């Protein structure tokens, strides 16, 4: 299992190529993925690099793809998910209570 056999195109963004990223992916797998999977992964990776997507976002997408056992065709969606992870959700709604009182009867004036 080496990165030399990964059939990724030599598209370069900065100093890293699709071949490099696919090689990293192969190295992180327990078993070498089938050539068809690596070919599709290389094609998708090259397209993303060509769009100016950072290698870090692509790595994050590949990591999600590997963890979820998904198709290489879904890499753009997974990269988008990694790039645009929603910020922490707002606190859930809570019914009003009197912050100065832990006594429910006192907080609502006994009108419950």
Question: SSE layout and pairings?
Answer:
Blueprint: E1 12-13, E2 16-17, H1 18-28, H2 35-50, H3 55-68, H4 75-83, H5 104-107
Antiparallel strand pairs: 1-2
Strand content: under 5%
Mean pLDDT figure: 81
Radius of gyration: 24 Å
**Biggest sheet: strand arrangement:** 1-2
> In DSSP terms, counting alpha (H) and pi (I) runs of 4 or more, how many helices?
5
By secondary-structure content and strand pairing, the structural class works out as mainly alpha
- Can you count the beta strands? 2
- Distance from N terminus to C terminus (CA atoms, Å) equals 69 Å
List descriptors.
mainly alpha; two-stranded antiparallel ribbon; 2 strands; disordered N terminus
Task: Describe the fold and architecture.
The chain has 112 residues and is mostly helical. The protein has helices at residues 18-28, 35-50, 55-68, 75-83, 104-107; strands at residues 12-13, 16-17. The protein has a two-stranded antiparallel sheet with strand order 1-2. The N and C termini lie far apart (69 Å).
In short:
The protein has helices at residues 18-28, 35-50, 55-68, 75-83, 104-107; strands at residues 12-13, 16-17. It has 112 residues and is mainly alpha-helical.
């Amino acid at each position: 299992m080496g990165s030399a056999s990964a059939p990724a195109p030599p598209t370069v963004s900065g100093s890293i190529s699709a071949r490099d990223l696919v090689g990293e992916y192969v190295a992180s797998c327990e078993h070498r993925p089938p050539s068809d999977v690596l070919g599709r992964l290389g094609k998708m990776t090259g397209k993303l690099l060509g769009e100016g997507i950072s290698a870090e976002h692509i790595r994050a997408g590949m990591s999600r793809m590997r963890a979820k056992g998904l198709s290489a065709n879904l890499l753009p969606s997974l990269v988008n998910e990694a790039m645009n992870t929603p910020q922490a959700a707002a606190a859930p709604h809570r019914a009003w209570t009197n912050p100065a009182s832990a006594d429910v009867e006192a907080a609502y004036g006994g009108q419950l």
